[in-house]
Write the structure tokens for this entry.
Amino acid sequence: MLAGSKEIAIVFIHWRCYVAVCEAGYLSRGDQCIMCDYGEYQSESNFIGDSCTECPSVGNFKKTTLMKGSTDEDDCICK
């Protein structure tokens, strides 16, 4: 395995159709796990989904995260 790469589980869904099962902080896009972007998080392990959860806003203030791949809403802070 290359340095910095992640080992992921690939699940057979349908004939010729595979999907990645991702750890917290990642979304599933086909057979790959993609890290959640800044301002998003994903807290579930063994996740099969194509979107991360956007950080909530507080009034007119949009929250963000300090890093990609955040795993909890508590990682969301005011800009």
Notes: The first strand starts at residue 9 and ends at 14. Residues 1-5 have pLDDT under 50 and may be disordered. The radius of gyration is 14 Å. The chain has no helices and nine strands.
